[in-house]
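yo

u said u wanted the structure for the complex thing, so here. seqs first:
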Amino acid sequence: MRAVDIIAKKRDGHELTRDEIGFIIRGYNSGEVADYQMAALLMAIYLRGMTIEETLALTEAMLHSGEILDLSDLARPRVDKHSTGGVGDKTSLVIAPVVAAAGVLVPMISGRALAHSGGTLDKLESIPGFRTDLSLAEFRATLEEVGAALIGQTAEIAPADKKLYALRDVTATVACRPLMAASIMSKKIAEGASGLVLDVKTGSGAFLKKEEDACELAQIMMSIARGMNRECIVLITDMNQPLGRAVGNSIELIEAFETLKGRGPDDFNTLCRELSAEMLILGGAAADAKKGRELYDELIKSGAGVEKMRAIIRAQGGDSRVIDDYGLLPRAAQHQEVVASQTGYVQAIDTEAIGRASMLLGAGRARLETAIDLGVGLTVHAKIGDKVERDSPLVTIHFNDSARAEEAAADIRAAYSIGLEHTAPPQLIKAVIR
Ligand code: URA
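structre next:
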């Protein structure tokens, strides 16, 4: 078998066999298939799509590129959640400690910034000393000791996804249902979770802009979960505006800490509550969504969630004083406001453009090897439905490079549609698929 023939077959719109998919993933993982060949295949898949059988084969090949953790001896339910990616989406940083505080184990394998969307790992790495590269033995020990552990794909767990994820980020091949489904499900199944809550985002800041595409991705992932004997609940949620107010890395971490302290923005706190409630059900800690929501509120109010976050940070080598002293986190040197050009109501926000503006400041990567600036980002003041006055602030830009800030400001200004008619804010939870 040759990689070039497999690329040509997909380029010409044919279905790949399980063997061909296994061959190319093994070859890419071992370095025999080059980045440029895989980039070509990814683009062919992006343009031609994959059948459900091909997607299942791809998921399995990626899953078997590394170890599959067996955590069944821990004798407690193990539940994780994964989001398809958005702007200001920092729910993992709240959910993991809260759900762990309820006694459910949360083994979480997260991603880095991808295209215009942020990544949990980059946000966590704003914490001095925090290690997202725990070995599997350390991951398991942390899980046993504190109830939650958050790491990235390692050389051991779904390593093919680690390489593919980074390559997709810089080859414009992220927004592709089979690639997303295989990426998410391979690492989630490898990490040993017994139950999974998936947050599939749709809207201007999501990879899948149309709700029907999000629903289709949800169905593909449900089929994979079913085929692999995992309990799975999918929420289809809105991404037509940034979630919460913070977009960036350390700035999002601070918003997550504030939410754990009971002072988070409403939309963000609501989504964290809904996702946690579903995880608490799968983890056997709540009988239904109402009970799950009540438990979430209690764990926030009592401080159990924030204390669990402190324990997770300590266990992963981080400086847990950051929870009380945000001055210990990376911060941008300069700030600038982007103001409204007219009085009216915010009618729409091109949220992908907001995400791209944050990336432009340095919060994400333009190339595989780019280092990111953990302190830069945006504070979003005006959301859909808000009344704004001419010259009132829409967004504050936190930056270290003035030329980039100018470019980002122009993009943000263009991303806002302001008109005289009031528009209702979008519905946050669009569907729950059990
Ligand atoms: N999150 C992932 O882990 N993979 C994707 O492809 C998209 C979002």
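Residues 4 and 155 are 26 Å apart (CA to CA). The radius of gyration is 21 Å.
cya
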